[in-house]
Every structure is written in structure tokens, then in C-alpha cells.
User: Which sequence fits this backbone?
């Protein structure tokens, strides 16, 4: 079914290099869990190779290949990618290094591998962005020992910065119990890979697929289309020709100051459902708007709502400066 989607705004970069996102860190740091969280939110991560041993797995996210590699343990001397780095690291454009902040006993080991990995980058004369995830930064934990954890993270940052002296490095605190921390980090990382416009389009396509909708358009106040995705020409036509009316209707409703709690317009026409929704970034900036065309099953509308929130969060991160 996914294959039947047609993307009218697809703008693949002309160079056909397959850049890679390297997802690494000690085993049990939380890499797989993070990738699964992303999969739920973006729903576009495909396992393109079955697990081969525990050391390496490959996923695809928005057209990029993600490789998950476990470091650490007694097997370390066997790790061929540290021995033969060119073979594995050459196309690494972005590296994500996951550190489990809850496991104090392995922090040292984790840092030592991080420095090894960066040494290999330097050896290979490549300079990928390095993103360090201080992971398992759980909301519950923050409630109880926030100060300690933040001090610890502060110290780690300092140590890493001083040891590495590497320019393209970013830090994030993440937890699977607060998926937004992961989405937020990933949006920022993906923005290093794609121009904004292209990333918005990719995200819209992923979201449209997740909703299994007939079409989806994101526009700004001036009806500039930021991203769109349609299953066919009909949907494209219907959505393109109704969006102006939804904008007007929305203005009318706003002027009437109707209750804004659940700020959306749902229109049903035979078996087609139109969902129009402002996307508020901040209270001070003008909203963006999304128009979704869905078929059948009215119950899905509720489902849409939940997913819309996830999408809006991702979208916010991408468009804000
Ligand atoms: N408390 C907490 N545990 C996590 C988090 N992320 C992953 N874990 C747990 O850490 C363990 C290892 O996770 P996994 O994703 O398999 O690590 P990997 O070996 O790096 O892929 C599992 O038991 C996860 O449930 C997190 O954000 N907070
Ligand atoms: Mg894993």
C-alpha cells in the first residue's frame, strides 16, 4: 500500500552518495530503544538487514542509513571497525554516541571508546558531526536528583570537550520515557543533513504514510506550501482547491472567538474526511496549517489526533530557527 503513494514534491539531491548515520556507544546504552522510539514517531525506519551478531544493525530513516554498532565488552579487541575503520566509517556524515548516564561503572569505558572512535575519524580525515546523547535522562529521575545529574552531565561535557578539541560536537539529554527529547535531538541532527525545505518534505511524507491518508498539505499563512504528499492526482486536486476555503473558514471561526481548545476543523463529505488544523509554534508567531484528507473509518480521526501531536512537535523543531 505504501508503494502506491506518489510524491509530487520529491527533490532528491542530485549526488547519489549514501551518507550514513552512525549510532554507537556501549552495548546496553540504549541505542536500539532510541531507534525504536524514532520508528514509532516517524514510522519510516525500516530494518534493511537482519541482525548480524549483536554488533551491527542497519536501519533506514528518511532516506538515510542508520547503522547501530555496539562497542564494549570483552569482545572489544575483535572489533574490526576500530581496526579497519576506513571500511566502515568513510561515509559517516553524522555520528551519534550514546552514553548511559545511569551506569556510573561504565562511564569511563564509554568515554574511552568515544575517544577511540573520534581518533579514527581524524585518522581518516573525515569530520562528521558528533552528537553525544546523555541517555536515560528519565523524567522521574530528573524530579528526584536533577541537580546531581545535571552536575554530572556538566562535568562529562567539560571533560569531553577538553579531551577531544573537536568543533562539530553537540550534546543532548535523552530518555525513551520522554520521546520528545529524542525527536528533538533527531530533528536537529537531521537538519545538519538536509536543507530545511527538504527535511520538511521528508517529514511530511513520513507522516502521511503513518496516517495512511490520501493526502497532506502543510502551508503557511500566505498559502505557501511547505510540504505535501498525495496518493494520487485526485487527492492533490481536492486538497489544493479546498485549502483556501479552510483558511477562510478558520479566520471566520477565529474572529468569532470560538473555543480554541481543540483548534481544528473536521469536514466530512461522503467517505472523505478533511482535517484542518493550525500548527502553533509559539504564541507570538503566525501559525502554519495542515490539511489532511483521510478516507473511511471515522474512528481513525481520534488516532489522527494523537499522531498529529507527534508530527507537530517534529515540525516545530524543524521550522523554528
Ligand atoms: N531508564 C531507562 N532505560 C532505558 C532507556 N533507554 C533504554 N533503556 C534500557 O536500557 C537497556 C538497553 O537498551 P538497548 O536499547 O537494548 O541498548 P543497546 O544495546 O545500546 O541497543 C534496556 O533494558 C532498555 O530498556 C532510557 O531512556 N531510560
Ligand atoms: Mg542494540
Assistant:
Amino acid at each position: 500500500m505504501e508503494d502506491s503513494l506518489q510524491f509530487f514534491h520529491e527533490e532528491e539531491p542530485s549526488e547519489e552518495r549514501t551518507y550514513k548515520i552512525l549510532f554507537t556507544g556501549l552495548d546496553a546504552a540504549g541505542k536500539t530503544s532510541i531507534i525504536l522510539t524514532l520508528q514509532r514517531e516517524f514510522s519510516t525506519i525500516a530494518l534493511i538487514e537482519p541482525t548480524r551478531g549483536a554488533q551491527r544493525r542497519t536501519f533506514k530513516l528518511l532516506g538515510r542509513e542508520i547503522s547501530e554498532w555496539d562497542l564494549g565488552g570483552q569482545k572489544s579487541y575483535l572489533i574490526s571497525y576500530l581496526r579497519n575503520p576506513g571500511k566502515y566509517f568513510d561515509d559517516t556524515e553524522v555520528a551519534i554516541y550514546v552514553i548511559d548516564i545511569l551506569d556510573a561503572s561504565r562511564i569511563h569505558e564509554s568515554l574511552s571508546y568515544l575517544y577511540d572512535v573520534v581518533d579514527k575519524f581524524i585518522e581518516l580525515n573525515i569530520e562528521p558531526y558528533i552528537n553525544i546523547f546523555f541517555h536515560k535522562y528519565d523524567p522521574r529521575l530528573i524530579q528526584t536528583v536533577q541537580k546531581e545529574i545535571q552536575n554530572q552531565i556538566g562535568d562529562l561535557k567539560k571533560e569531553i570537550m577538553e579531551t577531544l578539541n573537536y568543533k562539530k560536537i553537540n550534546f543532548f539529554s535523552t530518555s525513551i520515557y520522554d520521546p520528545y527529547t529524542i525527536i528533538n535531538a533527531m530533528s536537529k541532527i537531521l537538519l545538519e543533513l538536509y536543507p530545511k525545505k527538504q527535511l520538511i518534505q521528508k517529514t511530511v511524507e513520513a507522516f502521511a504514510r503513518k496516517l495512511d491518508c490520501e493526502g497532506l498539505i502543510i502551508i503557511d499563512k500566505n498559502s505557501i506550501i511547505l510540504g505535501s504528499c498525495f496518493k494520487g492526482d485526485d487527492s492533490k486536486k481536492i486538497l489544493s482547491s479546498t485549502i483556501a476555503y479552510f483558511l477562510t473558514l478558520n479566520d471566520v471561526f477565529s474572529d468569532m472567538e470560538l473555543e480554541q481548545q481543540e483548534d481544528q476543523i473536521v469536514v466530512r463529505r461522503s467517505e472523505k474526511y478533511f482535517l484542518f488544523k493550525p500548527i502553533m509554534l509559539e504564541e507570538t508567531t503566525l501559525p502554519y496549517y495542515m490539511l489532511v484528507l483521510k478516507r473511511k473509518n471515522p474512528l481513525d480521526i481520534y488516532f489522527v489526533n494523537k499522531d498529529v501531536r507527534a508530527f507537530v512537535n517534529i515540525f516545530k523543531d524543524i521550522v523554528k530557527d
About this structure: The domain at 197-319 is CATH 3.30.450.30 (Beta-Lactamase). The two ends are 36 Å apart (CA to CA).
